[in-house]
Write a structure and sequence with these properties.
Radius of gyration: 20 Å
Distance between the termini: 40 Å
Shape: globular
Structural class: alpha/beta
Helix content: 40-55%
Strand order of the largest sheet: 1-2-3
Largest sheet: 3 strands, antiparallel
Number of strands: 8
Number of helices: 7
Length: about 160
């Protein structure tokens, strides 16, 4: 998690991207910007939770910068203390995760932040437009074609490709 890695990065003066969550997330230590993020699809995370439960294992669920647990244990308490993060007790993790709605704006926002060239359409949600590096015309005004022409095809012509 970014919050738990940042103090260590500060102590050693790291200015290189932080590789977090076993490589599933890479973030800039100065801005917090996501440079890369890969998440398990919800159905796979649910399957993993069920398999862990069948084996009698306790699981922490990491969503964003939050750590969710079914109940506080000595192990989870020590982990939270060591990492400097709060744990959120939610009871049954499977039921909790299954009830999490897929917020399309949040998903698209993360995609824009991770993309090499984050593009939002002119008629997109305001949060998406603010996060994007490029604001394209609306999809009704051939915005996708314009972005491809200006940022992909024109670049290839300039470099002689």
């Amino acid at each position: 998690m970014y919050a738990s890695a940042l103090p260590y990065a500060g102590r050693i003066g790291a200015d290189a991207p932080l590789i977090l969550c076993n490589g599933a997330r890479i973030q800039d230590p100065a801005s917090g910007e996501y440079l890369f993020s890969a998440r398990l699809p919800k159905h796979q995370a649910l399957r993993g939770l069920r398999l862990a439960r069948a084996q009698g294992l306790r699981v922490n669920l990491y969503l964003g910068e939050e750590v969710y647990v079914e109940r506080v244990s000595e192990t989870s308490r020590e982990s939270a203390r060591k990492d400097g993060v709060e744990q959120v007790v939610v009871g049954d993790l499977t039921r909790f995760l299954d009830g999490q709605p897929a917020d399309p704006v949040k998903i698209l926002l993360e995609m824009i932040q991770v993309a090499g060239l984050g593009v939002a359409m002119g008629n997109a949600h305001g949060d998406l437009k603010r996060a994007a590096r490029v604001l394209a015309p609306s999809h009704n005004a051939d915005g996708v074609a314009e972005v491809l022409w200006e940022h992909v095809l024109a670049r290839g012509r300039r470099s002689g490709e």
